[in-house]
Amino acid sequence: MKKLLPALLLAAACFAAGAFVARPAAPDEITVPVLRAAQQLLGLSFPDAQLDSTRRNLTNYRESYEALRKIPLPNSVAPAVGFDPRPLRLRQPAGAAAVNPGKLPETAKIRLPANRQDLAFYTVRQLGELLRTKQVSSEELTLFFLARLKKHDPQLHCVITLTEELALQQARLADREIKAGKYRGPLHGVPFGVKDLFSAKGYKTTWGAVPYRDQTLDEDAAVVERLRAAGAVLLAKLTLGELAQGDVWFGAKTRTPWDVTKGSSGSSAGSASAVAAGLLPFAIGTETLGSIVSPSTACGVTGLRPTYGRVSRAGAMALSWSMDKAGPLARTAEDCALVLAALTATGPDARDAATLLAPNSFRYAFDTNLKKLRVGYLKAAFDQPYPTQANDQATLDVLRRLGVELVPLELPAIAPGALRFVLTAEGAAAFDELTRAGRDGQMVLQNRSAWPNTFRSSRFIPAVEYLQAQRVRSLLIEQMDEKLRGLDAYLAPSFSANLVLTNLTGHPAVAVPNGFTAAGLPTTITFMGQLYEEGTLLALAKAYQDATDFDEKHPPLP
User: Fold this and answer.
1) Is 267 among the residues known to form the active site?
2) Could you tell me if 335 and 281 are in contact, meaning their C-beta atoms sit under 8 angstroms apart?
3) pLDDT tens sequence across 267-290
4) Which of 179, 288, 308, 537 could join 506 in a cystine, given CB atoms 3.0 to 4.6 angstroms apart?
């Protein structure tokens, strides 16, 4: 061994210097010397170790380019990105007259529970009724949920910042208004939290990452403004995986309350964990490629991903301008509808051009006749074996018993996975300065799948390939529209090609609890809707929840 040691040290030194080559490179292999030359063209200067880490990603990207090049693209097919020449002052202004979302279904008379701790798992609708009928005050509820947040956060790691002072001010204002007969609606006085990529004036907005942990943005995000206008009370800014990926943030790993040895998934980690644990009645999250659906599943809550552009993202961290969406996580589909109505009450927001695309306003559709609906289901996906298949099949059976017509459905032939680099290219642009300045080295996760390596890899995506991918995305949108004609909604396993595909096409989805694994962890199924038809989607999901009790289950936290 002593004789081998000098040789090993020499080999290690040669490798570190870039001179050691273990084997001849294949003719088409992406090697570090190739990347050194390429980055000279781009004005970059990543060290060899970082270039080496990008090689797998770049090989995968090249495979995606080759797959997309096989898809015919007539000159008439434009990219699925739009140009709007109007400056903000010429776009439809924010603050338009409030839209009435329609009538809510009747509810049983709500009474205060004998054990006040049961309020932790009351729905938004139930708490709203208690507030409206003055059986409880907003200040009481605010103090109650603040106490739960403080008690359970050390175990769940779901809170970045408590907004206690602001919350008590808002709660006392709500109580005065309700007492004076100035009732704002079903969210008036109800506590909530937001994912900490939404700005809130006077508080840090950390994006869950070390480089931004002291960042303060002097504005309120649109979701914070609109929920304040509805009378809701902001209690906390909640955790997210670093820069909206996963459940690991600069302070810890957020946990699911169903098993605190396991992560909550993400990136809307704290939003899902806090709601599931009864620390908040609802919270706002975001999704780009699963960040509402995945933690809703891990934590057993109902998570709504609205149509792309339905909810304003003004004041939110951008990861992918053409894919980011904001939506609520709550106990029930009805709760999600109440929150969505508040988030869209004043219509489009000139600060977020995507909101100008909506052809209609959100309206409740709880009076929908289920027996007149045609609902698709991804037969091939449901038929192949997967871990939660039995729970999903049971869900389909419940809908059939309710009289819903289920129709087999196939997704478009275009494989959506080849388009995933659209997200990473936009993310790399959003965090260009972070990468070039080398501050990405401050982030907690530094593996090959983490953002630092992904952003560096994405610097090498050619603009032509990005635009070609957006053109294929246009074809995918048209094909999806054709597939869904004649259907009111459809169902899909929560984790399948459908998740990537519909985040690219912008369709609304709601992840609904539908059982448990053998290990006692919650599962969900995903209800999908037509674009801008969240009302029908949520009515269908509510009917399922009314017929089952999975949304009423909660983890055994004290």
Assistant:
1) yes
2) yes
3) 999 999 999 999 999 999 999 999
4) 308
Q: Is the peptide bond before 267 cis (omega within 30 degrees of 0)?
A: yes
Adjacency order of strands within the sheet including 191-195: 159-162, 233-238, 191-195, 283-287, 325-330, 302-305, 509-516, 522-529, 489-493, 374-378, 405-409
Indicate the pairing of strand 191-195 with strand 283-287.
Answer: parallel
84-111 pLDDT, tens digit per residue, is 888 887 886 545 667 899 999 999 999 9
> Dihedral, CA atoms, 489, 491, 496, 501, nearest 10 degrees?
0
Cβ pair 500, 420 in contact under 8 A = yes
Q: CA separation (Å) from 369 to 104, 204, 362, 395?
A: 15, 46, 18, 19
DSSP H helical ranges for 194-320: 222-229, 269-276, 293-299
Name the catalytic one among 53, 137, 138, 195: 195
Sequence-separated (6 or more) residues with CB below 8 Å from residue 487: 374, 375, 376, 407, 409, 530
Catalytic residue (one of 267, 294, 296, 458): 267
Query: What whole-number distance in Å separates Cα of residue 501 and Cα of residue 409?
Result: 14
Angstrom CA distances, 408 to 372, 377, 389, 396, 400, stand at 17, 5, 16, 12, 13
For the beta carbon of residue 386, count every other beta carbon within 10 angstroms: 13
Asked about 291 being catalytic, the answer comes back as yes
Please say if the pLDDT value at position 5 is more than 80: no
Q: Which residue has the tokens 């029908």?
A: 536
Geometric angle at alpha carbon 312, from 311 and 314, rounded to 5°: 155
Q: Is the pLDDT of residue 384 over 80?
A: yes
DSSP run (H or E) holding 457 = helix 451-458
Render pLDDT for 150-175 as a digit per residue (tens, 0 to 9): 999 999 999 999 999 999 999 999 99
Distance CA 95, CA 92 (A): 9
Query: Tokens for 230?
Result: 């509805």
